[in-house]
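mind reviewing both lines:
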Amino acid sequence: MVGLTLGDPAGIGPEVAAKATRQLRKKIRLRTFGLAKGFRPGSPTLVGARLARAALEESVRSLQAGDIQAVVNGPVSKKWLRRAGFRFPGQTEFYATRFGLRGDQVTMCMVGPRLRIALATAHVSLRQAASRLTTSDIVRAGLHLVELLKRMGIRRPRVAVCGLNPHAGEQGLFGDEDLRIVAPAIRRLRTRTRLMICGPEPADTVFGRAVRGEFDGVVALYHDQGLIPAKLLDFDRTVNVTMGLPVVRCSPDHGTAFTIAGKGKAKAASMMEAVKLAVRLAGGKP
């Protein structure tokens, strides 16, 4: 049983959830959380944000009770959720906290047809991502990526780790972070996994190499370093997976898209892929 939170009722979440449910309900058992009726598409409200928040809390109770075996989240508005008293950077950190973990103990991963990416840092500013990045962050993301790839059926994953600076620092010419922070993380990952962990790799070429088959997954060091290539190549089919949780949690890779909500333009492909991957990671066969 997969739980589906509808997200902000004024966004495209209810629409793509309905489309996915119609196409998948013969193969997958789905249970929805949230309310879609009574809201004007494209016009978010405080009431709608509170309902989206309540749906998240209800999904946690169902996961803890064993009523559902995985959850897939529709898109929410971080701005409106914050107005409704939601004190988390995103849904990733919300689930971490509800299951007794810190935000830095879980990893945001993006899984698409051509790229699988883990983020060492996620919902922080670029300045904070660079100044707070630690070797432990990279090791945690790398271990979670290896676990994810193995659960997807890749027995010996080949993983690359991005450099932080242009040309991966050019041996200290463009900053010492790649020598001081990233390289030690790669050595630790090699020791702990006994796998081929490459890097630090220049971020402007590593994703192309992964697409061509050289790597099974890539560790990106900050949000946009990983999400730009993921969304550029496979926006309609990429899935956000939170690794490190004791439960399976996925979501489509798009936002609320208020501007097209209710116009019949929203595509359900990413939502459908999220549901299918959630079933697969939970041990089922979608």
Summary: The chain has a mean pLDDT of 95. The beta strands are 2-5, 30-33, 70-73, 107-111, 116-119, 159-162, 197-201, 217-220, 239-243, 248-252. The first strand starts at residue 2 and ends at 5.
